[in-house]
Amino acid sequence: MINPQVIKKIQKMQEDLKKAQAEIHASTFYGQAGGSIVKVAVKGTKEVLSIQIKKEEVDINDLEMIQDLIVVALNDAFKKVDREMEETLGTLSQGMKLPGSF
């Protein structure tokens, strides 16, 4: 038989995790590349909100470089989303020993 206190703790943890996840999804994360030549903003859901390119600092004819900078900036922002998710959700679930877990 499972202890009612354990069930309450699990339900509270689930609520806290959902709330934290919703807050992260609603947040905006920023990435950049090339010394901030390219800046991007993404939601916590990894939806791209904006891409800014300092056109005076890039060679418009070098599309490969521009594309590479955009990819690097997006990956930078996505890593920040992942890190926040891991840190926040990991902290909330830390210390909660579930039956059958190590």
Explain what you see.
By secondary structure, this protein is an alpha+beta fold. The protein has a domain at 28-90: 2-Layer Sandwich (Ybab, Chain: A). Helix content is 53%, strand content 18%. It has helices at residues 4-26, 63-93, and strands at residues 28-33, 38-43, 48-53. It has a 3-stranded antiparallel β-sheet with strand order 1-2-3. Strand 1 (28-33) and strand 2 (38-43) form a beta hairpin. The longest helix is centred in the last third of the chain and has 31 residues, at 63-93. The protein is rod-shaped. The model has no long low-confidence stretch (mean pLDDT 89).
Layout of SSEs?
Blueprint lengths: L3 H23 L1 E6 L4 E6 L4 E6 L9 H31 L9
Antiparallel strand pairs: 1-2, 2-3
Helix pairs in contact: 1-2
CATH architecture of the domain at 28-90: 2-Layer Sandwich
Gyration radius over CA: 20 Å
- Largest beta sheet: what is the strand line-up? 1-2-3
- The SSE order reads HEEEH
Tell me, what's the shape? rod-shaped
Strand content: 15-25%
Largest sheet: 3 strands, antiparallel
Low-confidence segments, given as residue ranges, are none
Structural class: alpha+beta
User: What is the helix content?
Assistant: 40-55%
Per the CATH scheme, the topology name of the domain at 28-90 is: Ybab, Chain: A
Distance between the termini: 20 Å
Strand segment count: 3
Oligomer: single chain
User: Which whole number gives the mean pLDDT?
Assistant: 89
Distinct helical segment count: 2
CATH class group of the domain at 28-90: Alpha Beta
- Any idea what the CATH superfamily of the domain at 28-90 is called? Nucleoid-associated protein YbaB-like domain
